[in-house]
Amino acid sequence: MTAFSRPLCGALAAAGLFAATACSSSSPPAPEPVSEGIAAVADEPSPDTTEGVPPGARVLGSPSQGEPFDVTVVASDTTDDPSRWRFTVTDVTCGKTLGPAVTSAAAESIGSTASPPAPEPGKQFCVMAVDVENIGKKQSVWDTSGTVSLNVGDTRYTQSQTDDGYASDYAQYWQDKTNTVAAFGVNPGSKGPTHGVFQIPEGDKPTTAWFTSGTAIDTFDGTQPGYLVTLK
């Protein structure tokens, strides 16, 4: 998981932030979840396409964007008391500059007004907004670093160290507003926004996202099972 160290200066206006409306409290009620954890979905059929699935990974479910799905995260030291989450991918926006959550953090760190960060040459930013609810029995921590890939066909993109920093800025921004961001630890029943920041080639459009049910997509035990989310 990513450690968040860059402070944000106060509460910022949400204007210009990717997927801000997706995290609004005025959002309509979410549909019923498509699964009830690993045990309930283990026998689901695989999706029609396996593009975006890491080689060797077992597909536990194939929800669409906007559909909640339940994930039980089991680690070697938590098999008797795993973390359980309900995820809903609400938005993926590509090709725009990063919002004030990132630019304000950059300005604070250098003590002056900062320009929006630029992606790598030939790349574009994609910001994924995810509603995250703790449906387990204990306080848990989760973020998109090493646990989610944004896919274009069969090519999978995960967050770089730089992208992790941008995601940290989004997390701090929304933590100041909601106090329910999973990256900082949330208790059972708490729900809040999480944002992933990815860089994919200019002109490409993401087709799916992979959410691992492990502590990372690849661990010492091999590639972990997960969920393939079809994007709109």
What does this structure look like?
The protein has helices at residues 38-41, 100-110, 161-178; strands spanning 59-61, 69-73, 83-94, 123-134, 148-152, 155-157, 191-201, 208-212, 218-219, 222-223, 226-230. By secondary structure, the protein is of the alpha+beta class. The radius of gyration is 17 Å and the shape is globular.
List keywords for this structure.
232 residues, alpha+beta, 5-stranded mixed sheet, 4-stranded antiparallel sheet
Characterize the main sheet. 5 strands, mixed
What is the count of DSSP helices, taking H or I runs of 4+ residues? 3
User: How much strand content do the residues show?
Assistant: 25-35%
Our measurement of the CA-to-CA distance between the termini, rounded to an integer number of angstroms, reads: 27 Å
Count the beta strands: 11
Low-confidence stretches: 2-27, 34-47
Helix content: 10-25%
Q: Kindly state the mean pLDDT as a whole number? A: 82
Strand order of the largest sheet: 1-11-8-5-6
* Gyration radius, rounded: 17 Å
The structural class is alpha+beta
Shape: globular
Q: What is the chain-wise order of helices and strands?
A: HEEEHEEEHEEEEE
